[in-house]
Specification:
By secondary structure, this protein is of the alpha+beta class. The protein is about 60% helix and about 20% strand. It contains 5 helices and 5 strands. The protein has helices at about 1-20, 25-40, 70-80, 120-125, 130-190; strands spanning about 45-50, 60-65, 85, 100-105, 110-115. A 5-stranded antiparallel beta sheet has the order 2-1-5-4-3, with helices on both faces. β1 (about 45-50) and β2 form a beta hairpin. α1 runs parallel beside α5. It is elongated and about 105 Å long.
Length: about 190
């Protein structure tokens, strides 16, 4: 019974998180919602969203209060490139991220969720792993939604810009044709005389 109640509570909490993430419009808002949610279970969060940069190198935009060191970035890159969870137990309780969850959607990995426990209770973090994986999945879906919303908005702006360009060219063409037609008529009348 206790396990069923625990799962029901977890489902309720995940539903609330999904609802909150559904209203997010930016990656900053996604990070804030996630920080608030995982802060309740004594975890500090850094959300790293992959951004394509030149020469095929992936850079990460970092959202969170915990700034990652070089070692942690190595774990982030590993989780991102392999698309698998990376855990580093020996660093627990040292203010270092110990769990790195890739944000995976069907076509690619969007980023990584790095988690820093506020205590050195590694077993508690392990017990939360199914919940953390569900959170990472919700974050990935939300970030993908934001990406497609941005792409749709960019496409709409391009269509509007093209319509405006066509309208301006049409208007200019008409405005130039009218005086030219008048001049042509006058020239033809002068030639006829």
């Amino acid at each position: 019974t206790a396990e069923a109640q625990s799962r029901e509570q977890e489902t309720r909490v995940l539903y609330q998180l999904a609802r909150d993430l559904g209203g997010a419009l930016t990656a900053d808002q996604v990070a804030d919602i996630t920080r608030h949610f995982l802060g309740a279970v004594e975890l500090d969060v850094t959300l790293l969203v992959a951004e394509a940069s030149g020469k095929g190198v992936v850079a990460f935009h970092e959202y969170g209060s915990h700034r990652l060191n070089d070692l942690e970035y190595g774990f982030v890159r590993s989780a991102y490139e392999r698309g698998t969870i990376v855990e580093t137990d020996p660093l627990a309780g040292m203010g270092v991220a110990i769990v790195f969850l890739p944000l995976v959607v069907p076509t690619r990995v969007l980023g990584v969720l790095a988690l820093v426990p506020r205590s050195d209770d590694v077993d508690r973090v392990r017990a939360l792993r199914p919940l953390l994986e569900a959170v990472a999945s919700l974050l990935a879906i939300t970030l993908e939604r934001l990406h497609y919303a941005d792409a749709a908005q960019d496409s709409e702006l391009q269509v509007s810009a093209e319509r405006l360009r066509t309208s301006i060219l049409s208007s200019l063409s008409h405005d130039l044709r009218t005086p030219l037609t008048s001049l042509r008529t006058n020239i033809e009348l002068l030639i006829a005389d």
